[in-house]
Amino acid sequence: MRDYEAVIGLEVHVELKTASKIFCHSSTAFGGTQNTHVCPVCLGLPGTLPVLNRQVVEYGIKVALALNCEVARFCKFDRKHYFYPDLPKNYQISQYDLPLSYDGYLDYQTDDGRTHRCGIVRVHMEEDAGKLIHREGGKGSYALVDYNRTGVPLLEIVSAPDIRSAQAARAYLSELKTVIQYTGVSDCKMEEGSLRCDANVSVRPRGSDVLGTKTEIKNLNSFRAVEKALEFEIARQIEVCAAGGRVVPETRSWDEEKGITVSMRSKEEAHDYRYFPDPDLVPLVISPSWIERVRRELPELPAARRRRYQDEFGLSEYDARVLTAARETADYFEECVRQYPHPKVVANWVMGDLARLLNAAQVEIGECRVRPGGLAALLRLIDDGTISGKIAKGVLEEMFATGKEPQAVVAEKGLVQITDPKVLAPVVDRVLAANPGPVADYRQGKSKALGFLVGQVMKETRGKANPGLVNALLKEKLDQ
Amino acid sequence: MLTKDQVEHVALLARLALDEEEKERYTTQLAKILEYAAILNELDTADVPPTAHVLSLQNVFREDHVGPHLPPDAVVGNAPDKEDGFFKVPRII
Questions:
Q1: CB pairs under 8 A between A and B
Q2: Which among A248, A398, A480, B50 has most CB atoms closer than 10 A?
Q3: What ipTM was estimated for this complex?
Q4: Architecture label for domain A421-478
Q5: CATH 3.40.50.1980 fits B1-44, yes or no
Q6: Alpha-carbon span A171 to A326, nearest angstrom
Q7: Is the pLDDT of residue A14 over 80?
Q8: Domain limits of chain A?
Q9: How far is B91 from chain A (nearest CA, A)?
Q10: pLDDT tens-digit map of A253-297
Q11: How far is CA A247 from the centre of its chain?
């Protein structure tokens, strides 16, 4: 194993969040009754003409810039031919020799904390294909075709073969997803197919700079699948090579259940796509001013945001990474910090109690009923002594469930902290009287006993007593 | 010169079933067509930029809004076979 290294490149397809398709006015909405989001253009009926959706170009430029690519001044669309019923025209409109953009890179970090740079060969625009449903039944087998997805705009993002392990491939993909989500052009949901990934992989003796024969792996439907399939495929290829065999160039499919890749088809006949410029579409000329406008509108990208969280807010690298993993979380965090300028405290609540509630309820932070202002108000209630940190956790749960403001929850449930010594003194007396053992322990120098007594007072007051005050009152009595 | 192998390859890509006589005939005919088109190679195009499109148009766009869809009955109306609003096709894999 150690004598070989893997060479991996990923081809990622991202569905763009436009309202309408790339070359016609049909809806891009996910799902929908079969063949209801279609029109003569995306069905490829004779006599129709595709017309490019301007928003697709806008989004394409955005992603290209976010991935540090050169945007082409001049590009065009080509027809890629293959016979498969998911394409009504028998060709897919894509870009071949003059893509939208090229020569970029993406920096990403692996779990060991090391940063890697992966080249981006190209980002181009194309149309998505339809969906096939295979019906099994021996001789009666057939397929059903739904063209709703046909013509939904895609960006294809091709990485250079710069990735060296299955774990790194996963890390690259994860960073790519985060960057694209930040640009706001796609949901990047692997489970809905709005982010799809094919992997090209080969192995070679370590230290060699010659590329081995590669295979392409398809059907990678999750981040985990990408990593597991590559692990399997790398081991398989090394085994073939170590035994003196040759890797066959082919397309292989990941079988999630069995945890293996299986051969789908050999490469030779599949890859003669007979590209030529699509005469139905005119060339696209992108002016420098268009590119510059899009550049100015780019949001702060995750890497920059992570750095800023460390420099400006003094957060750890880990905290910065967790908070910026999704743009919505980072926006939420920052809005909260704007209203309650203690980043570390806010970070702990957002990554701790709030994240736990969101996870348990399977709610996205964008739909969370506790808004940043509400969380900020809650934290101020702790600071001004109205409630303890412990009570605040319960208040947050109530806010999460009901959408109420923290002040309202505290008032309704009578959770206001007891800060009046006159109210607390009788409770303290009761606790001391009921616990002669710990009292004696404390007086003999076992200071740990104090914690137990504080706990008892908190319990008696159902957590409402101000812990500092309880401490002070107990000590005063015990040290008398 | 075009070979019979190339004709067979193109026929396979185009999913055309040709018999031996047709392969021979198309090899000759296609070769003649290519030969004729090759006259263009005699032109000096050193100073002519590549033509991406025969029209001198560029940047024709539509705005991103959803328009009317085709009624479901019309979509599969002319399909040779259908089921529940899907196009039904022979097994693929």
A1: 123
A2: A398
A3: 0.89
A4: Orthogonal Bundle (1.10)
A5: no
A6: 15
A7: yes
A8: 4-289, 302-413, 421-478
A9: 4
A10: 999 999 999 998 765 555 688 899 999 999 999 999 999 999 999
A11: 34
